[in-house]
Fold:
Amino acid sequence: MSGARHLYIHLPFCAHRCGYCDFVTAVDRRKQHGEYVDALLAELGLERVVLAPRLETIFLGGGTPTFTAPAALERLLEGVPDADEVTVEANPETVTPPLARLLSRNRVNRASLGAQSFQPRLLSVLERRAQPEDVRRAMYVLRDAGFDNISLDLLYGIPGQTTSDLDSDLADALALEPEHVSCYELEAKPGTRFTHAHGAELERQAESMESYFERVVATLTGAGYRWYETANFCRGEEGRDLRARHNLGYWLGQDYLGLGIGAVSTIQTVRRRNAPRLGSYLAALARGEEPPRELEPLDADTRRRERIMLGLRLDEPLPFGGLENALDREAVARLERLGLVARNGVNGHETLALTERGRFLGGGVTAELLA
Ligand SMILES: C[S@@+](CC[C@H](N)C(=O)[O-])C[C@H]1O[C@@H](n2cnc3c(N)ncnc32)[C@H](O)[C@@H]1O
Ligand code: SF4
Structure:
């Protein structure tokens, strides 16, 4: 089937800006939510031709999609096509029974809750609004509204977070029995308030992060979760694949369309990045024109290299076929001897995967494999 099967929609509005975040966000702007949704729907109208007749996934990311004015959010959801998996990112403090019902009556069948931590002291380092009780309450509210596929986002490496803090965060997350957990190492993003205040501390603690990562993996896999991507885990459930299908599309190198400010699309041989500015986005779409964006041609070699970088984040072996030119055969053999990568299969049907040790070292190993 031709056309992109994955649609990303960026909803940038947030109640406030957390110090560590460098995503494309806009604080408050309540008066512009309706106008922004008009622009998103206009952009969808212009781009519909690149979409497949049936979508596999839609992901509403942010920003804080659930901070969007409810009437505008509902209008957006009513205007998007059907898809098998429809995910909305939600900040715990925004999840109320009416909001959960709005999402579920509009075909949203997966929620991704940004918990980050369950400890007030660490949440305040991150300048998060939600308290641990908000995360628990949001989870129950979503369950009550019928959500049976919920992901929790956690961060590790928060300044002042000890290994026992991490253990209790993981235990608190597991107690809520989420279907999926994303656990990221906190990154110091250039130019953020957080990096200004804590950047040097993050650099000092970088060495100990490998053991934190190992703890995350050991705890979640010990609790029966599948470590299916570097930072992502899903519950193993009979007859149900609980991996995030939208992100799986990215990791498998499939095409996707992104709408909204700062959104990225990859359609065949071109990557497009919408400019991150709200004013020029709204103005262009009000005139019925494409928003300002950068275009980057993707040659076959770049796509092959990306396919390897992303594909090796997964726990399923990557088929070699068509990727040979992008791999350094000597490096593959060397890393295989070091027990960091595993080759399998026979000529013509070979696969490559990182071993468990290789997965802990991650991107560094993959970078060495590239020709
Ligand atoms: C940009 S947020 C959007 C969702 C929602 N507004 C929230 O804050 O949870 C998506 C996820 O990105 C991750 N994230 C944001 N900034 C990060 C950083 N500096 N380092 C690592 N992960 C980060 C967080 O785990 C967050 O849940
Ligand atoms: S972390 Fe989430 S809530 Fe905080 S500013 Fe970024 S997008 Fe908004």
Observations:
- Residues 33-47 form the longest helix (15 residues).
- The chain has a mean pLDDT of 95.
- The first strand starts at residue 6 and ends at 11.
